[in-house]
Every structure is written in C-alpha cells, then in structure tokens.
C-alpha cells in the first residue's frame, strides 16, 4: 500500500512540474509547426568555404575543407572489410591518419584514393586459426 501511495505522489509531482512551454519560451527552431516544414527546411546546408584562404598546394587539405558538413565513408581493407560513415566528412581525414598507424591494417580507401597501411602484407592468422 505504501508503494502505491508513493507512486501516486510521484506521478502527481511529475505532472505538476512538467508543463508545456509557451510560444515565447521556445527556442527558434521549435516555434515552427512540424507540419509546416518543407524539404528545404530539412536539408543541412554546408558551411561556406573561403577558397582564397586555402593552401592549394595541399590537395588533401582542400578536399578535407570542402567535405566539411557532408556525409562521407571510409573503407578499411583487411582480411575483413569495414566501412565507417562520418556525418562531418572533415573528420574522415583524422580517422584515416589514426587508422593508418595501426599495424594490422592493409589499406584505407577515402574519396576513391587508396592509402597503404604500415604493414600492407599483414595476414590475420588468428581468424584463420579459428576456422
């Protein structure tokens, strides 16, 4: 009986504390009715890029800057393949640098370019031994 009474009191407190926000208290994105959104409202707009400030002698840095805010995938090639997806494409280059430091990795593919790993001739013997 005490547990039931405690649950009722907790429910009443929760209902009185939780209230719907008025229009003025809402953030700007929440003021618009969801039914009024168009496809253009739902699109993510990539950040503007100032090409005059970029070092054009480094094509990877240019590619990294142009992919900021776009979805991008990295393919890892080993005895087993893996795919990583990044919502912000500029993060893929940091991941590529980290992954290429690993001894067990054969190669990484990013934006149709293949980068060999530290030990491209590595064979995953542990998996073969299990089979």
Automatic annotation (TrEMBL):
Signal peptide stretch: 1-18
Start-end of Basic and acidic residues biased regions: 36-47, 120-131
The keyword Endoplasmic reticulum is annotated on this UniProt entry: yes
UniProt KW DNA-binding keyword: no
GO biological process terms held by the UniProt record: protein folding; Wnt signaling pathway
Region (Disordered): 36-56, 111-131
Keywords: Chaperone, Endoplasmic reticulum, Signal, Wnt signaling pathway
GO CC terms, sorted: endoplasmic reticulum
Location(s), subcellular: Endoplasmic reticulum
Family affiliation: Belongs to the MESD family.
Name of the protein: Boca protein
